[in-house]
Protein 1
Amino acid sequence: MEILKKIIKDKAKVLDESVLKVDTFLTHQVDINLMDLIGTEFYQRFSNQPITKVITLESAGIAPAAFVAQKFGVPMIFVRKHKSITMDKEMLEASVHSFTKQVTNKITLSKDLLTSEDCVLIIDDFLAQGQAALGLSDLCHQAGAKVAGIGIVIEKSFQEGRLLLEQKGYHVESLARITSFENNQVHFLNE
């Protein structure tokens, strides 16, 4: 997605050799027009699958996942990092370690939101180590749902996430694949 790459080049900030700050258009303030384009792009890439639900992890994945779900005409589920008092005891749970935040969260999802009849598309803002996508896929498998694929807005291709997911048999589509942050600049695959 060339428009996404241009926005990353123009607006993102490299904080160190592994951290990219995208809070002006994705993770804090959301560029709605960009999210609409992202929704369309993922729809085109996964339209050959019978998607019944789109799932993401709160909170930065919610905006792109909502637009993807809208394009498919299906519900979007966001998995919580902290259990709410309104959630009943029938929960699916998995552990996800965030290398950026240096914390492990127990992610939770109500059992009644996913079934063995569902074909799920996982959407996330970033792919680095692959832990969020693995945690979400674990919840899907616990529910008996099929994971049709994993859509990533920004992938850090210099980290092991994609390899780990592909070794487990997942179809991964990333819209912007970054190979390095050399000299405090973003470098994309095939650049």
Protein 2
Amino acid sequence: MDVILREVRDSDLPVFFVQMQDPEAVRMAAFTAEDPSDSARFHAHWARIRATPGVVNRTVAAASDGTVVGHAAVYGPPEEREVTYWIGREFWGRGAATAALRQLLAVVPERPLHARAAADNPGSLRVLHKCGFHPAGTDRGFANARGEEIDEVLLTLPA
């Protein structure tokens, strides 16, 4: 799927909110908000990250018609910069996440960059691998979406 990255617009937020209500997407992402259906918290979170210097946040849109596909970002202090992305489930398996992450990596030249993914999320692990990330370790963390601790893979895109 051919996608573009652009600045996040206020009109994108309702689409992101709906995408984050998909039970399967939430389960696969695992490390989500405690209550993804809490609109006030969602909007407060987005207001905070959009106002935070150093956060590079982009909307992922279909190149053909501008449909909002998801979002991608880089955040964190210089020594711990991390990538994150969310692609609406209706676009899974079409290369949107890989294309978006590759474009984001071109926008943010800093290295190393880090990423995390649930160990049982093969799609996200495949995207990160295709974009040059390498496993750097494992961890366990509480996954709100699953209500339990799960294994996660820590990855690094080296300098």
Protein 3
Amino acid sequence: MATTDDVTESKLLLAEYDRIKEEQKTRIGFRDNLLYFTLAAATAIVTITVQSGQPQLLLAVPVICLVLGWTYLVNDEKISSIGCYIRDQLGPRLGDLTAARSPVFGWEVYHRDDASRTTRKRLQTAVDLLTYLALPIICMTAFWRSPATQTPLVIVSLAQTLALAVLGWQFLRYAER
């Protein structure tokens, strides 16, 4: 059994750091796999559509992209929030306790100062928009141009377009982080 002498604020902060870095690592892996899964699912839907000759199946792609894109975005935001918390809260608190002369958890700041970071962030946003916005729009356009268009499905596709616009706006909004 630990005594109160064994439990210090700095030990608690380091334990918190370990746990949230583990959560961040898990979220990064999950987020990155969502991109691959989205592409695989969309490819499967397009393949089934071509083989079956049923273009209305293409309307499944926007649903997949909306659900997985939102999940991707939420995880990405949490990953960024964890980094921000470490930089702005946890690191400074631990630095004050230890009277450190340089920032604690320096990597959390250092990797953000890379000269190519802005370019990488913009390219990643472009990939995200291409995957979660352009891909479903292409599928909907193919559906709209097909002879299988029916009023109820066109209405559904227009609702999907609106939802995709909101998702795209959210991707752009969070791209600044």
Protein 4
Amino acid sequence: MVSNSGMNPGASVDWDAESATFDEEPDHGLRDPLVREAWAARLRDWLPERPGDVLDVGCGTGSLSLIASERGHRVTGVDLSPRMIDLARAKLAGRDAVFLRGDAVAPPVGEQRFDVLLSRHVLWALPDPERVLRHWRGLLRPGGRLVLVEGVWGTVSPVGMSAERLTALLRPLVSDAADLRMEPLSGDARLWGRDVDDERYAVVATF
């Protein structure tokens, strides 16, 4: 879940309380086999084929962490909510995975570096996303990648981050335009368990 550093839209949410029902959302718990397979297929495309070290920032209950682990990756999950962390640890019990309570702005991983930093619906709510992206890039090994799933939700008072803005923030950080790709996700109802009409997308940036 989101950071508590500074003012941000997610700071007022009690994520410990939300954890009790968090996985009831189709795209959170991935309990529906069709939804789960839709996310698994996307992660097969976004993550490296060879097993590596994946940092799941704002991991929640660990649903995407579990899919990454099933593909052989070594997972470190970070979340601000102790209860979310407890659920993630239970979900990945016995697997090569570690879960840490910490701030998404500065994940508490010390000098460890990763092949992938994965984040879903987190960056939009963090203060100073440009600075956050620079820090996240610094947590990657050479050739590492950011896999960022974001969107814009609501029509009256929309919240989120548009694909245009996120790609603009990332463009100065990559060495070549080919290292940055955006993938629309709104049209794939299997990912969300229903049809959606707002902007949802993934951006993969390789460094």
